[in-house]
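Minutes, project check-in
Item: structure for the 144-residue chain
Input as provided by the requester:
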Amino acid sequence: MLVIPNGNINSLIFGGKEEIVKEIIKREPLVIVITEVNKVEKEVEWYYFVATGYSADDPVQGTNNITATGVEVYEGIVAVDPKVIPLRTNIEIKGMGTFIAEDTGGKIKGDRIDIFFDLKEEAKKFGRRGVWIKILDNNVELEN
């Protein structure tokens, strides 16, 4: 059994000199040492979009192998709403790589994109999911 004199833990630890302990606590300065300062070069903004996959070998999707910009479809392009992301804009999809906005689609409105896959099975496997995109072209800004 532990007996604390006068019911005060400071009396037990410091022999009744609790005033000194209070003074030490009050007077000890907080020291912060900064070892490195980093300058923010540029803030990078990521935007959340809903993405689906599409393919040239899926007639249901209505693609004729030519994009809205007139190039033949290939992996690495996305369909966008040109009111949100201008055509021919380079984007990065987090965890997937870089793409270029070369196409549009009837159902691609607002914060939606369609990612081109060579095979219908790949597009179907991708399904529909949320993705984070970053605009890589310096002269293009999306509204928040």
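Outcome recorded: The beta strands are 47-55, 77-79, 90-93, 97-103, 112-117, 128-135.
No further action items on this chain.
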